[in-house]
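Thread: Newbie trying to understand structure tokens

Hi all, I'm a second-year student working on a class project, and my supervisor (Dr. K.) asked me to get a predicted structure for one chain before our next meeting. I've only ever worked with sequences, so writing a 3D structure as a token string is new to me. If someone could post the tokens and maybe explain what I'm looking at, I'd be very grateful. Here's the chain:
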Amino acid sequence: MKHIPRKRFGQHFLADPAVIDAIVRAIDPRPGQAVVEIGPGLAALTQPLVERLGLLTVIELDRDLAARLRAHPQLSVIESDVLKVDFAQLAQALAATKIRVTGNLPYNISSPILFHLLPFADRIEDQHFMLQKEVVDRMVAAPSTGDYGRLSVMLQWRYAMESVLTVPPEAFDPPPRVTSAVVRMVPRADFVPVDAARLSELVQVAFSQRRKLLRHTLGRWLEARGFTGEFDVQRRAEEVPVDEYLALAISLQK
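---
Reply by user tm_fold:
Sure, no problem. This is what the structure looks like when written as tokens:
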């Protein structure tokens, strides 16, 4: 029976064999690796992955799709909202020091998924995700560009990232209204330890009015917290590189 894509789950199923092959080559799965796929859907990416791996763990919220996937002898199916999955516990259950994570993420909750995974970065070897291209552009954006923002800072703090593939709408069934892209995210071994909640708060304040100089937003926020250190607030939020936001967050912890 044909599965009808569900709008509430943001379902767009990958259907182009050439694109699927390119994604699998980018992931480069090896036999025996602990890989977790988020949102396997109709198993377009799942099947070539499991053929190379031998075994694969998948996380699927749609109960009809989860039931189909359970019939596959090489799949371990977690029927759950990915935002409720503890990836540290999952790595432990898979007897893996680190896991690899992949998936064609539902575009309506892609940012929440990325932020949910952030605290588990030390248990993850790498991540390959299909996302809306404009989201990937924001993730990898450099300072002083229009795409650089909160997502850029928070993710570049913890990951080295690159856009590895652009995917047109016609590669999906049904086609989304946007172009997609695949991003590779590798957790940084040399990341600066910082209070993630504090960093997130100050970055959110900084970009709350991105057209204004920081003295109107972050400057006032810092003043209210008795900050007496040096930080140039005569700039816009997008002009501040990631390492300066990190240094500021660390100075606020002292």
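A couple of things are worth pointing out once you decode it. Residues 40 and 199 are 33 Å apart (CA to CA). The first helix runs from residue 17 to 27. Feel free to ask follow-ups in this thread.
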